[in-house]
User: Fold these one by one.
Assistant:
Number 1:
Amino acid sequence: IQAEEMEQLPITEVSEALEMQAGYVDGSLRGGRKGEVAYLIDGIPVTDSYDRSTVVNVNKNMVQELQVISGAFNAEYGKVMSGVVNITTKRGSNKFGGTIETYFGDHVSTHDRIFDHIGYINPLSIRNIEGGLHGPVIKDKLFYYLNVRNIYFGGWQEGQRRYKPIAVSFQDTAGNIVLFDSTSMLGDKEWVPMNWNEKLYLQGQLIYRFTDNLNVYYSYFYDDKDY
C-alpha cells in the first residue's frame, strides 16, 4: 500500500490498513498465532519480545509504503513463522509542506434506566489532533520529517463515584450492608469514564542523502499511553 492509497482510505490508524489485507485478522496472518508475525520499520525490527506485538506505532502520515508478506519470505527475516509487516517511512524532498488533521465526538445513549445524565453530550470526549512538517535543511542533501499526534478516547462506559476506593463495608446483625464510615468513604457522585485512554505519539526523522541510492537517516519514536 503506497502513501497515496492510504490518504484515500477511510482510516486513522496503520492497523486499520493492515486489517484490509487478505489473510490478516487482528494481528494474525493466515490463521497463525499473533506472535508469529514480525514487524519492521525501515528494515529495523520493532517486535516486542514479550507478546510479539509491535513496540511502537507509526502515524499513517509518516508511511511511504506498507508491505504485508504473507507468503514465502526470505531467510533475512529471523524468528518469523506466519509473515512480515514492513513499514517504510517517507524520505523527504526539497518541498516544504505540512498536514493537520483532527476529529472529535462523543457516545450518546437513550437508556435512561442506565444513565442518570441522559442527554448529556461532551463533544470533546473523543478528540484527536495530528500535525506534521517536512522539508529540506540543506537542499538536495539533508531533509527532515516531524509528526506529532495526541488522542484522547473517553470511551462508552461511564461510572458514578458513589464511594471512594478505600471504602470498607460490613454486615450488621440484621443482615444489612453498612459502610464502616459513611462520612469519609462516600464519593462525589461525579460521572467519570471507565474505559478511557490517552496516547501521545511523536515521530521525527533526519535524512542525509549521499547519493540517489545511499541515504543515512536518524529516526526518533516516542510513544506515551495512559489508560
Note: The first strand starts at residue 24 and ends at 25.
Number 2:
Amino acid sequence: ICCAQISQVYEDVDSAFMRAEEYLASANADMVIFCEQYATGWRPSTSAADAEAVKSRWISLAKEYQTCIVGSYQRPADDKPQNVMLVVSPEGEVLAEYAKTHLFTPGGEDAAFSAGSDAVCFEYGGMKFGCAVCFDLRFPELFREYLKMGAHCVIVQAAWPAARVADFELLLRARALENRGYVIGCNCIGYDSLSGTDYLGRS
C-alpha cells in the first residue's frame, strides 16, 4: 500500500491529476491512497458534471495503472455536496463510496458540505477495510463500529494541518491500539515518497 502524501496546493484539477499519475507510475503498489479531496481542494461545487468528471478520472487511472485507488470527490447532494472517499478496483469497479460523517465544524466545513450517515466497508486483496475521513479520526465509536463489521484495517484520508500533525499521528496509533487492528493514515502533510522528504524538507 502506498500513501501519496502530497503537500502541494493545486490551482486546477488537471495539475492535480498530472501529479497523481507521477505517483501511480512509480508506486508499484497494490493500492495507492490519496489524501482528502486531493484533486479538487476545498472549493465546494454542486455541479454534478464536475463531480462525475473527477470520479471518472479516478476510475480511468485505476484501470490504466492496474491498481486499486483510494481517491475522493465532492458528490452532489440535496442541498450541499458531500466529502466522499472513492475506492476503485484495478478493473474500474467502484468498491466503496464513503461520505464523511463528522464534519470539521470549527473550520466551517458544515457550511459547505453535508454529512454522511453510514459506515462503509469494502473488500480487496483478501482483507476487509473500513473508510474514514480526517475529523472522523477523533471519534472512536466509528472505528469500533468497523471492528464490529469485521474490518481488518481502517483507511483514513486527511487534510490535517502541519501545526497539529503530531495529534494526527497519535490518534492513528490510538485507534489501532484500542481496536487491535490496522489503521492507515494518508495526509496532505507527510512523507513525500517521490522527493524522499517530509513536510519540513527532512529526508
Note: Residues 87 and 95 are 5 Å apart (CA to CA).
Number 3:
Amino acid sequence: MAQLWSRNFTCMFLANLFLGISFYILMGIIPLFVTEDLKLSESYVGLIMGAFSIAAFSTRPLAGLFLDSFGRMKVFISAIILFILCCVSYLFAVSFVTLFIIRTIHGLGWGLTNTSGSTIAADVVPISRRAEGLGFYAMAMSIGMALGPAIGVTLLIAVPFNAVFALTIFLGVVALCIA
C-alpha cells in the first residue's frame, strides 16, 4: 500500500492546519472587533463578513487558471503571503472602509489559498489513497474550525485585539515556513 503521510503531504496538512486555525480565530473575533473596537452596529458585521465570503467565492473560478498558468506552489505561497499581509493589515483597520477593503482582499487570498492547497494535496497523495488523503487534509481545516474561535475569543479575555491579530500573523508565518 502506498505511503500516505509523505513529507509533502504532512507539510500540506500542517500548513492547512495552521492556516485554518488562523482563519477561524479571525472568524470568531472579527464580529467582536467590528462592534467593540470600531464601535459599529451589528449590521456592519454582516457587510464585513459578506465581503470576505463573496471575494473568496469569486476567486475560485479563476484559481484553476492561475494554478495552471503560474504553478501550484507559486500560487499557494503567494496566497499565503497575501493572507499574512491581510492579517498584518488588521492592525491598521480603524474604520469600516479600511476593514471592508482588508476583508475583501483577504477573501481573495483565502480563495486562492484553499484552492491551491487542495490541488497540491491532491497532487501529492497517492492515487490509490486519494479519498483518504483528502479526507485527512480537509480534517485539518475542521480542527481549525473547532479550535480557532475558542482560541481567539478566550484570548480576548486577557489581551487586546492587536495581540490576537499578532497570533494570526504568527500562525500564517508558520504555515508559510511549512509550505
Note: Residues 63 and 115 are 7 Å apart (CA to CA).
